[in-house]
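Records of this kind hold a single protein each, on a pair of labelled lines. With that in mind, the following record should read easily:
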Amino acid sequence: MAKKLVIKVTAGQDAPERCSQAFTVAAVGVASGAQVSLWLTGQSAWFALPGRAAQFELPHSAPLEDLLAAVLESGTVTLCSQCAARRDITEQDVRPGVRIAGAQLFVQEVLADDVQALVY
């Protein structure tokens, strides 16, 4: 059984290097065979919407859209329910494959056996 990697990213356009690092680690985790769960919180919540990741630019980094697509293909992407509510984002608004869930599920994932958790 693959190890699980739970990554919570709070940064978006406001802290592009931290944001890019979180998505890069998530995509590399997927490529390495880890079971990846990427949580979008705070300013990264906007990347749950179609087209938003494609607008992100950071020199010398992989396109955020490609990194997110890799995680969506083989991992789980979750938008924080409170973050979604504060931004008036609903299930109908998010890109395919993104779920909306709250702190209870995040804690459940982090406390599971064989889990590594990272916060950016």
User: Anything to note?
Assistant: Residues 4-119 form a domain with the Hypothetical Protein Ychn; Chain: A, fold (CATH 3.40.1260.10). The longest helix spans residues 16-31. The mean pLDDT is 95.
